[in-house]
C-alpha cells in the first residue's frame, strides 16, 4: 500500500510493503514483505529494507540491510510533499510533450 505524497525512485522493488504518507524511497531500493515506512521518512537510494522491518516516523535510513542514519530536521520533512508534487507536475509536462 502506498499513501499520498510518496516519491518512489526508478527501479525500486516493492513487495507487499506499506509506505505511509509523505515519504521518499530512493532509486534502486528494495522493500521486502511486511516492511513499513512510517510518515515523513526517507530510505536512501540502493537500500534494502528486510522483511518485517519498520522505519519510524521522521528518520533517514540507508544501506543493505537498511540501518538508521539520523533524524530528519523539520525543514526536511516539509520538503517531502513538495518534492512529490514537483515530480508529478514534471511527469505531466513530459506526458504532454512526448505523447499525443
Short synopsis of the structure:
The chain is an alpha/beta fold. It is built from 1 helix and 11 strands.
SSE string, helices as H and strands as E: EEEEEEEEEEEH
Largest beta sheet: strand ordering: 1-4-7-10-11
Low-confidence stretches: none
CATH superfamily annotation: Hexapeptide repeat proteins
Main beta sheet: 5 strands, mixed
The general outline is: globular
Kindly estimate the percentage of residues that lie in beta strands according to DSSP: 25-35%
- What is the C-level CATH assignment? Mainly Beta
By CATH, the architecture is named 3 Solenoid
Structural class: alpha/beta
Number of distinct helices:
1
Q: Rounded to an integer, what's the Rg over CA atoms?
A: 14 Å
Give the strand tally: 11
Distance between the termini: 31 Å
Number of domains: 1
Measured as a percent range, the helix fraction is 25-40%
CATH fold descriptor: UDP N-Acetylglucosamine Acyltransferase, domain 1
What's the pLDDT, averaged over the residues?
A: 93
Amino acid at each position: 500500500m502506498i499513501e499520498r505524497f510518496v516519491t518512489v525512485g526508478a527501479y525500486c522493488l516493492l513487495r507487499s510493503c506499506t509506505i505511509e504518507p509523505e515519504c521518499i524511497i530512493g532509486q534502486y531500493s528494495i522493500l521486502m514483505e511486511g516492511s513499513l515506512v512510517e510518515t515523513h521518512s526517507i530510505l536512501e537510494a540502493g537500500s534494502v529494507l528486510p522483511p518485517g522491518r519498520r522505519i519510524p516516523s521522521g528518520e533517514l535510513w540507508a544501506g543493505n540491510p537498511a540501518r538508521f542514519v539520523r533524524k530528519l530536521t523539520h525543514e526536511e520533512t516539509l520538503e517531502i510533499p513538495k518534492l512529490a508534487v514537483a515530480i508529478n507536475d514534471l511527469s505531466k509536462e513530459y506526458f504532454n510533450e512526448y505523447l499525443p
